[in-house]
Amino acid sequence: MDVLKSFLPRLLLLTLTPLFLCSCQIGYYAHTGYNQMGLLWNRVPVEKALKDPRLSPEQKEKLKLAEAAREFAQKKLGLKSNGNYASFVWLDRDAVTYVVQVAQADALKAYRWKFPFIGKVPYKGFFKKSLAEKEAASFPPEKYDTWIRGVKAYSTLGWFRDPITSPMLTYSDRDLVETIIHELTHTTLYIKSNADFNERLATFVGVEGSKKFYREKEGENSPTVLLIEKEQKDLQAFSEFISAELKDLRAWYQQEDKKEIPLHKKERIQKIQTDFEKRLQPKLSTDLFSDFPKRKLNNAVLLSYETYVSNLSPFQDLYEKLGRDLTRFMREVSKLKDSKTPDADLTSLLVGESP
């Protein structure tokens, strides 16, 4: 009953809000609310989960690692925990939610869903894959590109105390640490209707924070730290590459005759993968993006790269300016919490102006 008291008022607010918005969303919010309640109802404290016979010794070690990453993020990085990742829930599936992303077929323009509190975002999550597939199928394929992906972790932005999920235990150790820090970045700062900025910020903090975590845990020159540094360099190189490629592709869509786009689109997108193999892949030192040439790309998939990894340099520049102090960095970036144009206002922070 104590658990219900802690989250039921928020859950009711989330599920009743659509009654005042659009009747077509009521079913979606009922689905989300019901499954979110079930997820939270079935969570247990990490201490209890460590005694669960269903978990292997390796999974229990990952639980301990996730807990250590949470404490580190809160105490050493200045991130807000809000009780997140202090509990665990077992799920009989390989993902906690299934996310739909949609883009125009003839332009690099994402479809954005509007939700209470978080505003417009370029993705919509479902607890059942079949519902995600139904949502994607509602968009005519001649007009839209769609993509469905399973997600092992997500943030409710402080509304609930998010648990560690069993799918998260399939991550490598360093990916698990990075994910915890990534999601706690969202808990600390999430700017309404600016998902691209929020995700790129969390990507940057997740990588930089995990490097700091392993430096303290294993030492400055441990194999894990050196690998993270190599992957970080590859991430920056790919970020620059994909940012330029998407800029060129966006221009191509604008210049090409609309009737000609379906005839040449596949070849034009394939060119991005060919350029990657010829120009960038030989320079990379890790396999972080080794699957890129083989991926089935469309506009929805490409825009996910734009959301998560494009244009990371401004974050790096501000971080360097602040003496590579991630706590100070988060304090500065948090000044943008009410910004309507956080990317532009981040530039203001870089030159020492008030956003």
What do you see in this structure?
The protein is mostly helical and 355 residues long. The strands form three sheets. The protein has a three-stranded mixed β-sheet. It has a three-stranded antiparallel β-sheet with strand order 6-3-7. The model is unreliable at 1-23 (pLDDT under 50). Helices cover 55% and strands 9% of the residues. β4 and β5 (119-121) form a beta hairpin. It contains 13 helices and eight strands.
Shape label:
globular
What is the number of E strands? 8
Structural class: mainly alpha
Share of residues in strands: 5-15%
Strand order across the biggest sheet?
1-2-8
**Biggest β-sheet strands, sense, barrel:** 3 strands, mixed
How many H/I helical runs?
13
CA-CA gap between termini: 45 Å
**Helix fraction bin:** 40-55%
Q: Helices and strands, in N-to-C order?
A: HHEHHEEEEEHEEHHHHHHHH
Overall mean pLDDT: 89
Unreliable sequence segments: 1-23
Radius of gyration, in angstroms, nearest whole number: 21 Å
Short key terms for the protein model shown above:
single chain, 355 residues, mainly alpha, 3-stranded mixed β-sheet, 3-stranded antiparallel β-sheet, 13 helices, 55% helix, disordered N terminus
Outline the fold blueprint.
Layout: H1 2-16, H2 26-41, E1 44-45, H3 46-49, H4 57-76, E2 87-89, E3 97-104, E4 113-115, E5 119-121, E6 124-126, H5 129-137, E7 144-151, E8 164-165, H6 173-188, H7 195-218, H8 223-255, H9 261-280, H10 299-309, H11 313-321, H12 326-333, H13 342-350
Parallel strand pairs: 2-8
Antiparallel strand pairs: 1-2, 3-6, 3-7, 4-5
Helix pairs in contact: 1-2, 4-6, 6-7, 7-8, 7-10, 8-9, 8-10, 11-13
